[in-house]
Amino acid sequence: MTGLKSAHHLENEQEVAQQVRRLQKTEEQLEQEHSSFVRLSQLSCELVGRLDESNGAAANTVRLSLDSITQRWDNLVARIEEHGKTLVKSGKADVKQVMAQDTGEPVVTSSEGLSTDTEGEEQKNQLVDKFLLHISKLSHELEPLQEWSERFEVSRKRDDVRKMMNTCQEKLIQIKEQEARVNRLQLELEHLHVAKLNAKQLKRANDAFEQFAKGWARIVTKISEAMNVLTGQEANGGPNGEEAAVAAKIEQWIEAVDK
Predict the structure, then answer these.
(1) How many CA atoms are closer than 13 Å to the CA of 250, on its beta-carbon side?
(2) What is the distance between the alpha carbons of residues 200 and 198, in angstroms, rounded to a whole number?
């Protein structure tokens, strides 16, 4: 971003062309690095999730570092947008097609800003990336429940029944606490479905949510099955209402994603 001038300081067409090329080059570099930035965010969230319980200070350090990088990234994007808008609004680039030296294609293609088609697609990619980040964060928070569901085995010994019932009730409370966040993910996915994403973008979102929903369903099903055995509900002809309702909702989500 060094070397950029305010629009009113650009004195001739050559300086305008040079300014536009710099903006275009910086924008292209940001686009090339965007996937790395998203990956860094995901890895940082994963690391914070793993450190939170065992080393809160280290987790906070990672969190602050990510916040700092995110702020710098956002500031850079904002500066590029502001320079582009003021350049066009000044009228100095409005009636020109400033040609990039290497490609021979117009850098400024409309009076609305720089590379509007690319920006539109990038905004859609960012919507998907944000959704995937939300899934990643919740998935890592659910890891203790996931691990518990994989190793938990029901004991039919009379002395163990009450203890196991209490454990399942605790896990059910944890599920209920996370249910609203899972619902928000479902709503976010529905919004993506009406956001005019292309097939590749939509597939990324659907695949990620399907994988998450199946993991969530395994947790709910495990608790439901354990409660059925422990309370004798299987012999009485029906599962517990709360657990069955949650499990049924998960199945509906999975079916919707599969379509």
Answers:
(1) 22
(2) 6
Question: Distance between CA atoms of 239 and 237, rounded to whole angstroms?
Answer: 7
- Per DSSP, the residues of 84-144 read HHHHHHTTTTTT--PBPTTT--BS--BTTBSSHHHHHHHHHHHHHHHHHHHHHHHHHHTHH
8 A C-beta contact, residue 185 and residue 135: yes
| DSSP letter, residue 53 | T
Residue 253 tokens read as 């989500």
DSSP 128-197: HHHHHHHHHHHHHHTHHHHHHHHH------HHHHHHHHHHHHHHHHHHHHHHHHHHHHHHHHHHHHTTT-
Domains and CATH numbers, the chain: 1-114 (no CATH), 115-259 (1.20.58)
**Could you report the per-residue pLDDT of 160-192, keeping only the tens digit for each?**
777 888 888 888 888 888 888 888 888 888 888
Coil, strand or helix: which one is 238?
Answer: coil
Q: pTM for this structure?
A: 0.46
